[in-house]
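call fold(seq) -> tokens
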Amino acid sequence: MIVTHKEVEQYNRDGFVLMKNLFSKVEVDLLIREIEGGDRVAGTTYSTDDSSGLKAKLAIWFELGSDVWSSVSICPRIINNVRILMGEDAAFFHGKVMLKEAKSGGAWEWHQDYGYWYDQGFLYPNMMSVFIALDHATVENGCLQVLRGSHKLGRLEHGRVGSQTGADPSRIHQVQNMFELVHCEMEPGTALFFHSNLLHASAPNMSDRHRRTFITCYNATSNPVLQGESLKYFSSCPVGSDDWLAKL
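ret:
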């Protein structure tokens, strides 16, 4: 469950790498139950409109705790691979659950994660997201789409698209044909590690099946964030257990 040298090269070239079956069905089933009955997701969920007015739902938090989401975020299968791909030590930044519900889940417009995080004060794009499929993600239910290699463009300007923040649509129109469009169809338990400058989006979910995802995000410990007149550095992410399910 450790990335290979070839996968590190792929990540540097493409801006992402896919790791299949990183989590078992038993682990995924527990995370689905936490979405449907747990306090963390229920207490932090909000909606945002895409450009057509459909609702995209998101739950987000910025601290580690004693819940299952934190256990996944610090398990070696995730954090050790993040460190290898990033090429340096990493800190936990935040976790979030994306709820793209059947027949109503809104799209996410083209954007870079660093398009948001730059405005939050992070000086460098030495940041990464790990996108873990909890349902089957297909073209029909709005799987993630990425532009292979687009992280090499650097940060694009972002602004309002619907009630979301998205990359400048005119710039997207100009560069979209320069990069291969990849539909990231994923089985439950598969994880996509991707660079914070990789352009990505997803279509609405008008199918009969939910498309729910857990995303855990990391920042290089060498990458400070501006806080007023000072700089804040993040502490190294703790490393938990790959046997996190048995320890709950």
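The helical segments are 5-14, 25-37, 39-42, 68-73, 76-86, 113-117, 169-175.
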